[in-house]
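Hey team,

Filing this mostly as a record. A colleague (T.K.) asked me to run one chain through the structure pipeline before their review meeting, and I want the input and output archived in the tracker in case anyone asks later how it was produced. No errors, nothing strange. Just documentation.

Input sequence:
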Amino acid sequence: MSSITLKSLTKQYTEDRRTLDHISLEIKDKEFLVLLGPSGCGKSTLLRMIAGIEDITQGEVYIGDVCVNEVEPKDRGVAMVFQNYALYPHMTVFENMAYGLKIKKVKRPEREKRIKAAAEMLQIDSLLKRYPSQLSGGQKQRVAIGRAIVKEPKVFLMDEPLSNLDAKLRNEMRIEIKKLHERLNSTFIYVTHDQVEAVTLGDRIAIMAEGKFRQIGTPLEIIECPVDMFVASFISSPPINYVDAVLVNQQGKAIVDIDGVRVETSLPIDVVENHPRVVAGIRPEHCFITDETSNTFAMEVLFTEIIGTDVLLHLTYKGSDFIVKKSFTQTYEKGQKLYVGLDASHVNVFDKNTQKNVRSLS
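Output structure:
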């Protein structure tokens, strides 16, 4: 079993600040969990505490049904892949991959067998005699992953392993890591601040801020129903649009009224009384350009941003920015007037004071 259980895990460096504040989480056997959050939120610290290279102030870490708080890192059955590769420059690729096995006194024939298998899997078998200085960034990252694979760990811990690569290599390596997880059938915990990586890779995502979990769920759960405005913003690329609104009772239905544009919701009617003033959150991909002038917003084009086959229309509404994402089928001019409609089924409603999603509060 390579499940991981975190019980009230706390890390405190100073008296007045906790880097991690009573973190609890169950990570299932063979799950791919992504820790997502801004810099300084504690996600890398959490990963290092699981690995055993960071002391625990309070709480417990279990791998399977064994508490590993007092277990040495080398005996925990985990392997860690770092952001900076951490390869020994004076060793060949083969020697780098073999080093951990030599420390564990794995016999040479078994070492060679594991290294050959991992190198073939990662398509670096032709590089085994090269030194790190002779490798590209992508090749170095594959070597670092290969060094982890040969240890045959119960758990893989990856700390922003793709952040030093260019965009094309990041895309390629994301696919390789996803395939690797399926082949190895092991538990993966992956740290990133990139929401695209999180959504692409994770079976579940744990979003962190200020040393705590803000929301844990599948990518679809978090995208469809973010627990608050922080999560909605962090998991949105391009950025989510926010507009002030009110909730009204229209013939027994909860309706979001945004400056006269009315959007029907599936919210229970009692939210109207409990949360009258709200903020509506609409992702750019859930907006559309229309010729209809009723129940739509009149906006003006600021500029356009072409991304592959899509275009981001940066518009202005009542002095604030508003983004619409659509297929790139025509050009738009600065100052052009457009009418924007909303996909009602994807509008999230947040309490204006608490910034919590009204759906989760109802």
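Quick notes for T.K.: Residues 291 and 339 are 6 Å apart (CA to CA). The chain has a mean pLDDT of 91.
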